[in-house]
User: Fold these one by one.
Assistant:
Number 1:
Amino acid sequence: MAILIKGGRVIDPARNLDEQLDVLIEGEKIAALEADIEAPADAQVIPAGGRIVAPGLIDMHVHLREPGYEQKETIATGTRAAAAGGFTAVACMANTNPVADSASVIAFIKEKARQEGVVRVYPIGALSKGLEGKEIAEIGDLAAAGVVALSDDGHPVMNALVMRHALEYAKMFNLPVISHCEDADLANDGLMHEGLMATILGLRGIPAAAEEVMVARDLLLAAMTGGRLHLAHVSTAGSVRLLKEARARKVQVTAEATPHHLCLTDELVQSYDTSTKVNPPLRPAADVASVAAALAAGDIDTIASDHAPHADEDKDVEYDYAPFGMVGLETAVPLVVTELILPGKLTWQQAIKAWTANPAQILNVAGGTLAPGGVADVTIIDPELEKEVNVNDFYSLGHNSPLHGRKLKGWPVATIVGGRLVMADGKVIE
Ligand code: DOR
């Protein structure tokens, strides 16, 4: 079966392309990109006038929660949330139960994704056994099982020697080590960013330095080992300064920012809505502006949601007791369009590069471009479409989004994975 996408604005940053073209998909591959392609007899034609046609978006930081926390999310629901949000591939974090620190758990995730998933799923292996930060996981076994990266995300690796060894071993398999940069002692069981808002609200603060000391440590270890460091959810101006300085010294480092750290501030915590409780915490406007500027400058490589679903009953408690995390897959694109692209802080090309070519390169996975011959993963976005976020419409089992009720513009309207249309007009196709 063929699909012909007609008359869209095709943006493929990997090939410096931004022009009105038709895209022909045959089978699982991109067959042609040309100005005016005649529809083959059997083709499904998708009109895309006024719409953005991009390589399939890749989210390299997602919590699918399976195995072990299926009340929060499953591979079936999480991949449907991804498809609805315009993502054709996700990399899933290892803080499952059992922890994804062995080849058998990785095999389980891959098999479940094959049976029940609707987008590509790339498992990330744990960096340390049991995410305890004490002993590195069997990295060779995990590499052979097909992980795309290693990370203890959700838990800081407090022991610098363990981090050193992880960077050294991962390097032998050319795998990036994704660091959740947080000094647990400095974070001191804080609930939100330490600053004016925390003082006003009377909530225990997490200082920016709790992130920054670990960013500094891990950059030093990356420089020492030559390992591939990837900084998860960069959220402070200080982290951005350290990152820029390390890049200037040619340290091998890549970095991501989440839509919430790029677009939302700690003022939202005033609501005491537990969906604003996230780790790292929402920061003040100056940090948000600095992270967004670093993304536009290319110092931050990719936008990753850190989609962290929790069951309603987990979050429906006092702020102190709620777990950290907010969902992001189904609002990432319109939030970034509304808050960064439309106000002119980020171009379409920059945003799409950060969601396609860059994560494909970091994870060394298929896609990231619409080059003919490559996999037919495509995302179509309607820059004019405005809708109100309704968490009750999410495919995700997690409703923990502070964006409920907010009007956003620029929603994905079609997701194609390997030549198969999996989402149209916001609805997942079964
Ligand atoms: O807010 C967060 N939630 N941050 C993390 O690092 C972990 C995540 C989770 O697993 O819920």
Number 2:
Amino acid sequence: MKVETIKTKPFLDQKPGTSGLRKLVTVFQQPHYLENFIQSTFDSLETIEGPIKGQTIVLGGDGRYYNRQAIQIILKMAAANGIGRVKVGRGGILSTPATSCVIRQSQSLGGIILSASHNPGGPNGDFGVKYNIRNGGPAPEKVTEAIFARSKEIDYYKILEASDVDIDTLGESKLGDMVVEVIDSVNDYASLMEALFDFDRIHDLLTSGAFRMCMDSMHAVTGPYAQALFEQRLGAPAGTVQNGVPLEDFGGGHPDPNLVYAHDLVDVLFGENAPDFGAASDGDGDRNMILGRQFFVTPSDSLAVLAANATLAPGYRDGLAGIARSMPTSQAADRVAAQLGIPCYETPTGWKFFGNLLDAGQATICGEESFGTSSNHIREKDGLWAVLFWLNILAVKQQSVQQLMQEHWQTYGRNYYSRYDYEGVESDRAATLMSGLHAKLPTLKGKRFGPREVDYSDDFSYTDPIDGSVSQNQGIRIGFTDGSRIVFRLSGTGTQGATLRVYLEQYEAEASKQHLDPQQALADLIAIADEVAQIRTLTGMETPTVIT
Ligand code: VG1
Ligand code: CO
């Protein structure tokens, strides 16, 4: 088999976003596009990590359109670049958390995950590539910057001239000098879950006849994992996992587990004869949504509840070293940390910022308001982990989701919270809005809006406590003296136009005032957000596209 060296040209005009390179499938299908990114990645690794010759990497994806073709290209390029072994999920399937798990357990150099996460798939949808490092976590800025820099200089890539590899049969085969090892996509991950949670108690709960659950895998990657865990190992009846077959176009849906896109599940949990518990996950399985009967748990509250009850799960019996949350995530977890006497870290948006804290043993549980929670068991957010954690807690406490949540609010107070997304805003308009806000920042302090007074206003900057690296411009924050907050930032994961995210939060200590609808409780803040940022005027949109 011959290694071909193909001439190419620099190709990226923008640094890869919050989680890797995410573009339309049609962009990835352009000649040399995927190849350029993969070669830039290998070249950067050579500089940062040292020789990649003979190293092992993990490879898999969420099964979306172009997954299989991309896997074949990457295998041939890995072989041409001297990689020693690639562990590839059977059929090209590996969820993001499972990839992280396999990288760590096999002590691989890193892994390549093919996914655009919660973005729609299919020939007209999105595709994506993210590189994860040795600790199993997303590449930190240092690595993504190196990849971007290399992409601007690249002039050739290497690929093996060979026929396609069988990735559907477990076992090893050779591609040139490289070993291709097709691994079971589910086993290692499922065993890790078994080591963390009380499967006997969850089994009792799910087979008691008094508790019904429904898991919506949204035709994305978690189907096989959820079936193995809930239906096979934990005794839940067949059919508990819905939309459990990964499809290239996710069945035409948008595999984003929120109240808008996971409407089928929402209808079930808010309908007649609703089950006790519902959950959904996203394209690549790192996000989760938790629902009770007629009850929605905000991701920020979910993080706080898991932290407060962590010792009920065997894997966290000894307590937590610390909690970390992304900046726009509500401060509900901070209150739990304060009560537990442990630190709570505030990081920029994106899971990569938790990596150092987890590696250093300073945080055990982390979370983002965007339906992401996980712990130090891997270095990615983990949708099914959160679902199992909730089931473990409910099994021990024998409470409904709603009871558990209300009891939590009585103890810690309630952080009313909502996120407004304005998707598909013209990029120029979004930039104008953000720069307008920026210009106003210095004038806001002390300004009154009705009974509220601005306590601080800034553009969030983060200094990593472990390696001292600084990340600037991570979102505009306006904090009020009563503890409420408004945060504005532009998404780094969209592929068309800009997405403006507005995050609203207000604390309520008194139990008698904790029953409001969040939209009602936050109405004043929403009005202030519009007044300060001129959202409707500048975006030209009367209402957000998604409210969470
Ligand atoms: C969004 C979320 C962020 C999350 C990121 C990746 O980023 O807000 O919290 O880490 O997606 O999630 P942005 O820049 O669009 O706001 V996933 O499930 O795509 O890996
Ligand atoms: Co995801």
